[in-house]
Structures are given as structure tokens and as C-alpha cells.
Write a structure and sequence with these properties.
Elements (H helix, E strand, L loop, with lengths): L8 H14 L3 H14 L1 H6 L3 H8 L3 H12 L7 H18 L2 H14 L2 H17 L3 H13 L5 H17 L6 H12 L5
Helix pairs in contact: 1-2, 4-5, 5-6, 6-7, 6-8, 7-8, 7-9, 8-9, 8-10, 9-10, 10-11
């Protein structure tokens, strides 16, 4: 609070977070960051990804998922662009954990909080990576979850049929191929007048 040091406030705050993390006090660092979002959001923004990167370096997707939940619990105090990033991190962590229930909940949050074009832009690569990594059962379950959601946006239907076809091709499930292909073609064929 000394005016002489006010220009260095962001640096001191960042160093304090780094020191807590270096000492293994990730919960204290998280508490500090969350409290700072409420009082001085510009400082918290400056270290937004610090705890995420810390948990990533530890290869700890469970901690990433828990941290993202805490961030998202801030609600509108967390700016939209950062909320979108936290939703993405949270889903990616659930997928790394192969936690279908958490991933479904994260997909629901993404679909509820983001516009369809933003949500599908986030979901498409995440689920495509899942298919490419050979996690076909989980990808199929999550794709089915998306397709069963009642939504008026055709973007979600497009996403579901495209991912279904991709999954069928990745597993060489030739018996399911005709139906998946027809669903995809029907979804992507423009209606004629």
C-alpha cells in the first residue's frame, strides 16, 4: 500500500504466488488468487494460468479439474474470456482422467455457458483428440451425450454426427458405417426448396 511500491504491485503479487507454489502450498496460492479476484481482479488476471501450469507440470489432471471448478465458482467475477479457458481446461482434465461423469458435466457447463459456435469450437478438438488417442468408448459415450441434449442449435447436431462418423471410421466398425455416414450426409446436405 506504499505509493512508492504501487507500480510493482503486480510483480510482488506474482512473486508471492510463485513462492507459495515453490513451497508446495498450492491450496494457499489458490486461496490467494481467488480472494484477489474479488478485490483486485487485474492482479488475479496477471497470474490466471499460474496454478494451472503448476498442476500441469505435476501431471495432475485431478488438481487441474478441482482448480477449474473453484475458478468457475467465481461466476461473473471471472471474466468471460477466462471462464471459457477454465471450461476448456476443466474438460481436458476430465478427459485425461477418463472420467465420463465429470466430462459429461463439463460438456453440460460448456453448452450452458457458451454460445453454440464457441462451445462446438471448444468441444470438437477435445473430442477429436480423444478419438485419435484410441479412447473410442469414452468418445462415443460423450458424443451420444451431446446428441441427446435438447438444443435448437444445429451446430451440436453437426458436431455429434461428425464425431460419430469419425469414431466409426477410427474403430473400423464397418457395420455401423452406413448409418453413421447417412446421418452425417443428411445433416450436412442443404435442404432443397
Amino acid at each position: 500500500k506504499t505509493p512508492k511500491y504501487s507500480a510493482h504491485k503486480a510483480t510482488f503479487f506474482s512473486q508471492k504466488v510463485d513462492l507459495l507454489l515453490a513451497q508446495g502450498h498450492d491450496e494457499a496460492a489458490g486461496d490467494l488468487i481467488l480472494a484477489t479476484w474479488k478485490s483486485e481482479p487485474q492482479l488475479a488476471r496477471s497470474v490466471f494460468d499460474r496454478l494451472y501450469n503448476y498442476f500441469q507440470q505435476q501431471n495432475n489432471p485431478a488438481a487441474v479439474h478441482a482448480w477449474c471448478k473453484r475458478l468457475l465458482d467465481l461466476g461473473t467475477a471471472l471474466p468471460f474470456d477466462l471462464r471459457s479457458q477454465a471450461l476448456n481446461w476443466q474438460l481436458t482434465a476430465a478427459l485425461a482422467l477418463k472420467d465420463a461423469a465429470a466430462a459429461q458435466s463439463d460438456i453440460d457447463a460448456i453448452m450452458a455457458q457458451l454460445k453454440p459456435e464457441e462451445a462446438t469450437a471448444l468441444l470438437q478438438p477435445a473430442l477429436t483428440r480423444l478419438i485419435d488417442a484410441g479412447q473410442h468408448d469414452l468418445a462415443t459415450r460423450l458424443t451420444r451425450h451431446i446428441s441427446e441434449k435438447k438444443t435448437s442449435s444445429p451446430l451440436y447436431r453437426d458436431l455429434a454426427v461428425t464425431l460419430s462418423l469419425r469414431s466409426v471410421l477410427a474403430t473400423s466398425d464397418w457395420q455401423a458405417f452406413p448409418a453413421a455416414f447417412q446421418a452425417c450426409a443428411a445433416q450436412h446436405t442443404p435442404e432443397r426448396p
